Amino acid sequence: PPAGVGKVTRMLRRRLVLSSTALAATAILTACSGAGEEPAKAPHEVISIAQEKLASAKCVHISLSTQELPPGQNGVAEAVGSGEFSTTEPKFQGTVQGRVKDVTANLEMIGIGDKAWWKLFTPDFTVADLADVGAPNPASFFHPVTGLPGLLGQATDVTAGKETRVGRDVVTTYSGKLPGKVIKDLLFLGDGTKPFDITFGITKDGELRQAVTTGEFFTGTTSTYTLLITDYGKAVTITAPL
């Protein structure tokens, strides 16, 4: 080809090589910088979102358990059931395994507002005198402000941890402190002054899946309660038995 044409061809090739190199460098820099990805949320933002999702879930299923119920103490070893959030009439229905006045029992329980019923060594539900045994009404767990969502809302010094698996879900852990008064008011446990350690497991969708709380629930003894929360929004029907 004529010398002029060859020169132009070489220039075009050179420009193509330079352009390709620039594009490759840009792609590498973009990938390394994480451009285009959403910035990671601060722990307090994640906690706030999880609190709002839980409080507005309408209904959820819970499982609360401990392996460390000290001898001679009244308390719940396990509670499994469903609840409905409400500021005026929260509800719970499920089964509770615990110790009442040195008697260990498995019982069915229903709580609606400030009323409760149980099957305690009886074939039918009877009115539960929870004040007599120093136990909370499980319906109170389902108040959107002072119930379970309050565990999130009143946690302090929260820091992000690692990813782990809870059942089928991958969660990110967030650890912090809970004032003793929160546990005293909600579970009727602890002396109301000593803080508790709590670790939340929160899904990428912002649902609180697990809360592990450790502290002096019973005088002189450190125990751990594990709470699992599933079935967000799954409707349940809970009615008074009497």
Write the layout of secondary structure elements.
Layout: H1 3-33, H2 43-55, E1 59-65, E2 75-84, E3 91-100, E4 103-112, E5 115-119, E6 126-127, H3 130-133, H4 149-153, E7 156-166, E8 169-178, H5 180-187, E9 196-203, E10 208-218, E11 221-230
Structural account:
This protein is α+β, with helices and mostly antiparallel strands. Helices cover 25% and strands 39% of the residues. The chain has five helices and eleven strands. It has an eleven-stranded antiparallel sheet with strand order 6-5-4-3-2-1-11-10-9-8-7. The termini are far apart. The mean pLDDT is 87.
Terminal CA distance: 102 Å
Spatial strand arrangement across the major sheet = 6-5-4-3-2-1-11-10-9-8-7
Which word captures the global form?
Answer: globular
Strand residue content:
35-45%
Largest sheet report: 11 strands, antiparallel
Output the number of helix runs: 5
Mean pLDDT: 87
Low-confidence stretches: none
List keywords for this structure.
242 residues, alpha+beta
Please provide a brief summary of the model:
Helix content is 25%, strand content 39%. By secondary structure, the chain is an alpha+beta fold.
